[in-house]
Each structure stands twice: as C-alpha cells, then as structure tokens.
# Entry
Amino acid sequence: MSLLRLLGALLLATLNGMAPVPAEGLHLSNLSVPRIIDVAQKAKLFCSYAMGNRTLNSVKWYKDGLEFFRYSPLTPPTTNWFPVKGVTIADGSPHCNQFICNVELEKLNAHSSGQYRCEVSGDAPEFKLIDQTANMTVGVLPKYEPFISGVRLAYKYHDYLVANCSSEWSSPAAKLMWYINNKTAPGHSLLPQVNEVTRHADGFHLFSSHLQLRLHLDDQRFISKSEVLQLSCSADIMGIASVRRESRVETTILALKDAGTNQRLTENGSCITGQPASLAAWLLSLVHFLRWHGTQS
# Structure
C-alpha cells in the first residue's frame, strides 16, 4: 500500500511540473510629467514599463486624447511624430527602448497645458494595452520672493501694525499667506487677497497678488517685556514646494515698562509717558533690523 502511495505522489509531482507557468503581466511602472512648469523651460516626459515575457509592440504619447508621438520597434519607421496644438518635440529628444520611452517638449505656450498619457501595448496575439495619465500646467512662475512693505522698525503697546505683501506677476495666481513667528496669522488679521490681472503676450493671464496684515498690538505681554516679531509672507502656486517663494522681516515691540522710562498705566489701561522710550530699546530694535538686512544682502 505504501508503494502505491509513493507512486501516486511521484505521478502528481510530475503532472504539477508539466503544468504551464502563468505569463508575467505587462506593467507600466512609472509615469513622470511635471505638474507645473515655466513657459521658458522644456518639459521632460518619462514613461517606464516592464514587458514580462511579452514583446513590445508600441508606445504612444497623447495630449488631451490626441496622439503626438509613437514608438513602434517592430514596424519601420520606428518613430513617428503627429501635429498636435501646443506640442513641439525637441530634436533628438525621444529616447525609447524595451523599458522606457522619454520625450522632451520645447517651445511651450498656453496651449501646452493639458492631460498627457503614455500608452504601452504588447505584441500579438493579445495586443494588451496599459496606460497612465497625468496633468501638466504651463505657466509663468515667479522668480523672486514676494515684496513686504509698510513694516516699521519698532512699535509699542496698543499700536497698529499694518504690513503689505505683494507677489511678482505669475500665472496661475499665487496664494499669499502671512506668518507671525512661524505660526499662521489669524484670519481676522487679514484683509481679503486682491489679484490684479493683465494679459501676457503669449496668451497667459498674469496675476499680481496682494495681501494685507493688520495687527492690534494689545497683548498684555507687551506691557512689561519687549519682543521681536518675525513676519513672513509666502507665495504658493498649486501647493508645489519647488515653486514656493517666501520673504521675512523683523520688527521690535517695545515694552511700556522698559528700563529707563517713566511710564505708568492709568486705571483704564491707557499709557501716560513722561519720557521717550529708552535709548537701549531703540538700539535693540536697530540691531535686529541691521541683522535682518545683512541676511538679505
């Protein structure tokens, strides 16, 4: 009986060894398209794939559903270009093989924005297709940090601090945000953002954004202690870190009860000053200003 079982096990193992192994599937491993790019740059589109045990039939690139480039290694000519508005392929840029197909676009314009798709197909008999899509926005990106104006060298308790932040012309419009000592400024201290609009010669609508910060310096901590405030304004476009710009300034809030001053608070909290603010406090604010100015140079 044991001999029959042994023979049966050997036969089963032989049959299992003869069973066909499933073919490895066609797989598109990576699609890389810039989310946003400046109109003066070239856009590099990357598509990589794994064919498994299949043969590559073709790789096609599309913009908004229209084919503009094809690589077909089995059918000469192996590379083909097709006219699509907003798409200009740089000379010598296509680099395609069994594993990758990369294309570089030049002479970008407002019509170059859109949805880009890489489609890979295997050979007969299945001609299986795989594809991925990604959106690209072509714009005019700011090259400089936003401009901060209106901030004085020093303030005192109960003063109003009014600061203006303006971004460079860009498309799309930048979203501005104020920060106080690296913390987001409270919403009630901000006026609504204003976006000025003009028209670029290449068809882009350009925006210059402005955001005003208004602070009433009425925190009681400023009564007895001077403090340096760091104000920063950031300009974001589509939330992409690589195109984010930021500027910083510092100002000093001078305490009411500072050394060398003859100040007192009345019952209603108003200030009666017998002498001007101390020279030491003003020198402190000047040092902070010069230090900041040195970092900006």
Observations:
- The two ends are 94 Å apart (CA to CA).
- The CA atoms of residues 7 and 86 lie 70 Å apart.
- The mean pLDDT is 82.
